[in-house]
Design brief:
alpha/beta; about 30% helix; five-stranded mixed sheet; Rossmann fold
Length: about 170
């Protein structure tokens, strides 16, 4: 299922997977690694239904990437979630931060509401447990194990969502 983006007249996949983090900072690369891993595992029949994006951090401009979507999966490394990962629905919320460097997924949804004047797509935040975020470090064994578990969950999430769209 794809949605028409009225702003530019393009058809977009109904599902967006948006992961962020820095691959040069050990476990901080869990978000982009999830995006790459899920994209590689995605069954052929679902490829026109899912778009994958990754970045170093969430930015207000990403609100435009939500336009025309039915659902969004935000993915980031987390120091506070229970291993191996946690996933939960999120809703628009204003951030108390003053810089875009601290923009949360909930704040990005609020930017969407402010810009579009409508409710954002159904959104889920997937936090994958990380432990080591040093510059120049590689992903740790525990994080790799957590990533594998999150990828199995993510593939099920995408597949179930595709079934609901039919």
């Amino acid at each position: 299922m794809s949605s028409k983006n009225p702003e530019v007249g393009l058809t977009r996949p109904s599902t967006l997977i948006l992961g962020w983090g820095n691959l040069s900072r050990g476990d901080d690369g869990l978000g982009p690694s999830f995006v790459a891993g899920l994209q590689a595992q995605l069954p052929v029949h679902l490829r026109n239904q899912v778009e994958f994006l990754e970045d170093y951090q969430l930015q207000v401009e990403h609100a435009l990437d939500l336009t025309g979507r039915r659902r969004v999966l935000f993915v980031d490394a987390s120091l506070t979630c229970v291993p191996p990962f946690e996933a939960h629905a999120i809703h628009p919320r204003r951030d108390v931060s003053y810089t875009s460097h601290a923009l949360s997924a909930e704040a990005l949804l609020q930017v969407f509401v402010d810009v579009e004047g409508s409710a954002p797509p159904a959104s889920t935040l997937l936090g994958i447990r990380g432990e080591a975020f040093e510059l120049g470090g590689s992903m740790g064994e525990a994080a790799e194990s957590h990533l594998a578990a999150a990828l199995a969950w993510g593939l099920e999430w995408v597949t179930e969502g595709a079934d609901e769209a039919d």
